[in-house]
Write a structure and sequence with these properties.
mainly alpha, elongated
Amino acid sequence: MADLLMPKATAVWLIDNTTLTFDQIAAFCELHPLEVQGIADGEVAVGIRGLDPVANGQVNREEIQRCEEDSSQRLEAIGPASEVPQRTRRARYTPVSKRQDRPNAISWLLKNYEELSDAQIGKLLGTTKATINAVRERTHWNTPNITPQDPILLGICTEAELLDAVRKARARAERAAAREEKAAEAAEAAAAEASAVATSAATTGVSPEQPQADATPAQPVDDAPLSAVEAGPSDSGASDPGLPGEGGGPADVLQPDAAD
């Protein structure tokens, strides 16, 4: 339900012009039932003129009649016909009478709050980065007459706005310091690991770039076992039946006698 513009004035009108219960009026106007009862008794909202929610388009007459017939029902407000456009952010407006004091305020912020960025100062005072740099580098056309003055006392910004900007700037600085500390710790860990590797290499006499050779030398090729064909006849004296001239082979049986 959309917020009522004047809830107590609406409650006054509903009490005077309808038969709704205090609970129904309290639920619709977002008030306490005892407060609604006090309005009806004339103890609360004295002198407030009633505001018609039907004329304002917040509720229709049929909805009121429905709830008057059944006290357990609750009024349902009518939503806005069109969405109200949100106001866009604009540059801070500084009155003409205060614009001559902006260099003084810039100087004061640069002196007392170094953690503020140029963007934050420009947002607080409604000025530009060029003016901020001119005041910082003392190249402003009115530099001899610039005197640091508190922008809060000058009425250019409020204390809440300044404190919020300072809080954000310090939080940003803390995050940056934490990142730098983390990077330094990582660099120290990498340096310690490299030093440990170099020390280990100096102790073992092996370059850290080259892997340490296996202590067991490779077996020479000559000592490799021979295959069955290269090994020849076994020690048992059996000859290959396919080779002539060796004992017990078929070649000896078929060889003719020299006398023939």
